[in-house]
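Interim report, section 4.2 (structural modelling).
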Amino acid sequence: LRLMYTATAMQSKNVGASGAEKYTEAFIKKQIEEFNLGKRHLANMMGEDPETFTQEDIDRAIAYLFPSGLFDKQARPMMKHPTEIFPEQRKIQWGEDGRPFHFLFYTGKQSYYSLMHETYEKLLNVQKYQDQLTAQDHLPQKEKRNLVGSRWLTKIELEEMLLEKLSDDEYSRFIQLLQKLMMLPCGDIEEKYIKKFSKEVPVQLQKVVIEPLKYDERGVAFSTGEGTRKTARATAVVYDNGTGKITVNGIDVLHYFPVLQDREQLLFPFQFLDRVGKHDMVCTVSGGGRSAQAGAIRLASAKALRSFVTEKEVEFMRQAGLLTFDPRVKERKKPGQEGARRKFTWKKR
Amino acid sequence: DDKLLSEPLSHPDFFNVKELFSLKDLFDARVHLGHKKGCRHRFMEPYIFGCRLDQDIIDLDQTMQHLQLALNFTAHIAYRKGIILFISRKRQFCHLVESTARECGEYAHTRYWQGGLLTNAHVQFGSGVRLPDLLIFLSSLNNVFEPHVAIRDAAKMNIPTVGVVDTNCNPCLITYPIPGNDDSPTAMELYCKLFRMTIIRAKDKRQQSEVFNELR
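Predicted structure of the assembly:
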C-alpha cells in the first residue's frame, strides 16, 4: 500500500498550489538591506544627509529623478520600505516535528475559526455573569447606546486583519455574533474586545463647518458663499437688512437674466427660508451658459445663507437639495457613435 | 529508545484506563439512551440491549469494553506523540470539543469540512504537512444526518479512527467504535473528560519515561 501523503515527488506540478508568490524571510531581509543601502545612495546623490533622510524626502527625490506623467499614482516609480510593498505572508504553520502550532490548524481557516471560538467564549462568560446577577436580582437595565458614530469592520479589513480569505456568509456570521454579544444587558464588560472590531465614523454634518457672520463698515452682517455648476463659477455675498436687491457682475438681475426661469432659480433659497425681501445680494459669475450661471449662483447663495440660519433649517436646506453640488457635466462623445449616447442610423443592409 | 516504545505494547492496559470510568458513571451520564426505533441503523443492532417504549437502549457492558479499547488506543497514540484530531459536527458541543482539544494540546475540527482536507492536504496546506495520526469522532454524523466525510477519508488515508456511534450511525468504517449517546450534554462532557484525562496521562507518562532514560 502506498502512503499517499508522504509521496512528495508526485506533486511536481504544484507551482500554483503554494498560492500567491511566496516571500521567504531571508528574501524580505535581503530586500530591507538593499532598501537601506539604496536610501543612503539616494541621499548622497541629492546632496542630503544620509542619517536624516525620511520617507517624504525619498518620495520627493524619486519624483524629481524619474518624472512620470502617468495618471495612476500606483503605476509611477516608487521606493518604499519592503514591508509596505510585499504583502504580509503566512509563515510555516508547523514545527520541526511536524506538529502544527495552532490547535485549529486542520480546519483550514485557523484565524477566523479561532476568532469565532474566542467571541463565543466571551458570549458564554457574559451569559454566566448575567445568570449570577439574576440570581441576586442585580440585573442592570440596558440603556440604548447611540450607534451613530461607529461601524463594524468591512469584510476586506477583516481579511487583512486575519490574513485569510473569507466568504460573505462567514463574515456576516461573525458580525451577527458580535451584535448578539453587544445586545446582551451585561455586554458592556466585553466593550474593549468589541471595540477592536468597530471603527469611528465622524457624522457627516459635523464635518461641514458653518462660517460665522462677518460685519462690514456700516455694521451690516454679511456672509460669502461659492458655487459651481457645469463650467460656471460663482461667488455670492449676502447682506442682512436688505430689500431683496440682487446684482450680478455689476448688472441688475432683471437685465442679466431676462428669462424668468433663471430668476426663479436665484429666488429659490430665499423663498425656501421665507426671507424673500430681507436680504441683499451681490454676486460675480463667470463661465458656463445662462442656466449654468443661475444654478451656480443659487448654490453660492444657499451656502452663504447657512450662516444666517439655525442648524435645523440648514438640515432642511440640505434635504431639499439646495446645498448639494450638481455633478452633472457634459458627457463626452464616443468614437463609433454620433454623440454621447446617440448611435449612427442603423441600416438593415 | 526502542525499549521506551516497545514496553507499553506488552501490557494489555499499560495506562490503566479502566479506573477512569465505571458503569454507574456511564448510566448517570445517560450514555445508554439511543434514538427511537425508526432511526435505528441495521449495523447497530448487535450493540443494542433492547427497546423500551420505542426508544433504543444501548448495551453498556459492550460500551464498557469498546470504551476501554478505544481509550487504551488513544493513550498509546498520545504516548508515541501522535497528532490527534477531534471531530464533531454538533453545534451544541462545538465550543466544548474545541476547548477540550486546546487543553490536551491536540487539534480539533468542529466546522464545515472542506472536501480535500485529508486527501488533498499537500495542495490545501502546502507540501510537508503532517496529517493526523488518529481521528476521534465525538459525533459521527454531519448536520444532514449522513456519515461524516472524514470517516471515509481516514479509511482512504490509512488513519485509524475512534468514534462514538449512536443508534442511527454507521459503525462500519470506524476502527474503534464506541456505541453510546452523542446527543446529551452530560454524555458529551463525560467523553471529553475521559479523552482529556487519557491523553494527559499518556503524555505525562511519556515525559517521565524520557526523564528516567536520560538519568540512566
